[in-house]
């Protein structure tokens, strides 16, 4: 297949992202291939946030004046936009957090509190070996606090979930199944609705980390079959400091509050407190207001481009990148080798060169990638590597930027005299 799946308005889209006009490394054109780490921001997101700070800045739900009303309207309007982006049945099911990590910790921590969903000894939590640390550590902490047992689904040699023993791992003791929609290291797209359906057969809660999915493919929380879906703003062309937890109303209602403070209460006396309904029950204190407003503009931008079109573009660029990496001698891709099975993050090794050295040499050529374990040490350990180099594309990535990467990798091999 060729490059027919590229966004037809790619050059127009690139003009929306001012940072892509930058030069680095002594005048070289910036080639940004680190979008799985954080995406760049279109001018509309930047302008929306600046406008809010310049003209509407005030605290929400507290100030009895015009600015307070405008700020509250903008903040709650962002919730409406995110709910539409996720096809959420109700705007009240959208909880703003500071990032996906906090959203996952909110769920895991409240399951340790006394209540109808509390876990205990004999219960089991099932995760996978490909998870980001943010979807491993909170469940380890929950197991330690409650006496529950943590189990995990392993990986096949080509970087997919090994579901051969799922019937044994998933049983009547399983209370939570948490997994990533798209791996940030291997790129693997997991069968979310199928896994959720299997988990529901044993009555388990399903938690899906959509941090890498929400930027590059349509995320429909209803169709997913999940009880909770989380993502983070800075990977969907939005700002840092804002994340989202979506949950079924009845499940959110059953969970106790995560943090105590202002706004999450109904009444407070010196003896006791009662709590506000969702979503405010989980949004204690002054929230990230301008960040939420920016996230609302970001999901509007992505929706206008079209998530189906973005997904086709990502798969086209990913296919082209996989072909390019295969042409570099001594380079091994970790994860599936067919673009249809994966997202835009591609981790790879180069024989004889450390990933950090690769990233540093690429940086001298104006190319931004990531090197390290990508907060996925267990997945690296499964493949017997300490770290890897990762390139990750997005809706603004052009084929000639992949060509520049391949050329720079061959330059790196020559620089270190390998092969």
Task: Outline the secondary-structure elements.
Layout: H1 10-15, E1 23-24, E2 28-29, E3 31-32, H2 43-56, H3 66-86, E4 94-97, H4 100-110, E5 124-128, H5 137-146, E6 149-153, H6 166-169, E7 174-180, H7 192-201, E8 205-209, H8 221-224, E9 228-232, E10 243-247, H9 249-254, E11 265-268, E12 273-275, H10 289-305, H11 307-326, E13 331-334, E14 345-350, H12 355-364, E15 367-368, E16 370-372, H13 377-382, E17 388-392, H14 399-415
Parallel strand pairs: 3-15, 5-6, 5-7, 7-8, 8-9
Antiparallel strand pairs: 1-2, 4-10, 9-10, 11-12, 13-14, 14-17, 16-17
Total discrete domains: 2
Assigned CATH class of the largest domain: Alpha Beta
CATH superfamily label of the largest domain: Type I PLP-dependent aspartate aminotransferase-like (Major domain)
Any idea what the radius of gyration is? 22 Å
Distance between the termini: 30 Å
As a percent range, the share of strand residues is 15-25%
Tally of strands:
17
Give me the secondary-structure category.
alpha/beta
Features:
419 residues, alpha/beta, Aspartate Aminotransferase, domain 1, 2 domains, 14 helices, 37% helix, 16% strand
What features would you describe in this structure?
This protein has 419 residues and is an alpha/beta fold. The protein folds into two domains: 10-43 and 307-415, Aspartate Aminotransferase, domain 1; 46-304, Aspartate Aminotransferase, domain 2. It has helices at 10-15, 43-56, 66-86, 100-110, 137-146, 166-169, 192-201, 221-224, 249-254, 289-305, 307-326, 355-364, 377-382, 399-415, and strands spanning 23-24, 28-29, 31-32, 94-97, 124-128, 149-153, 174-180, 205-209, 228-232, 243-247, 265-268, 273-275, 331-334, 345-350, 367-368, 370-372, 388-392. A seven-stranded mixed beta sheet has the order 4-10-9-8-7-5-6, with helices on both faces. A four-stranded antiparallel beta sheet has the order 13-14-17-16, with helices on one face.
